[in-house]
């Protein structure tokens, strides 16, 4: 059986990222989009990342263009939105699919472990998955759940 820490992704800059690098950390996986009504959540996600990174918390952003074509650009445009417009410093992957036959293995795994909607599909951009230090998926959050409303769950996972 696959575990979260056995999975990999490709960074926005094209480098391989092993989820094993995050063993011992609390991870928040988010499917993102640069032209979505929820895009301002980048600011809240960055604030949580900065606030708790020293305690072992990391946010991993996964840009996706499957919902309303709200992530149409390439790596450079995505980087501009994330880094310049929102000051994002947490790791971002290259663009992925989160549903369907070409869904990224990380999202296949997380949807299987925390199905949410009937059929496990991701409904929209900024669906979030909280993963414990041991790699166990803990909680799934809806797109409309703001980063601030997740802080208690993050604190519980960090055990601080």
TrEMBL record:
A Gene Ontology molecular function term of the record: peroxidase activity
Keyword set, alphabetical order: Oxidoreductase, Peroxidase
Xref: InterPro entries: Glutathione_peroxidase, GPX_AS, GPX_CS, Thioredoxin-like_sf, Thioredoxin_domain
Active site: 36
Keyword DNA repair: no
Stretches assigned to the Thioredoxin domain: 1-159
Family: Belongs to the glutathione peroxidase family.
Record's protein name: Glutathione peroxidase
Gene3D superfamilies for the chain: Glutaredoxin
GO biological process annotation, one example: cellular response to oxidative stress
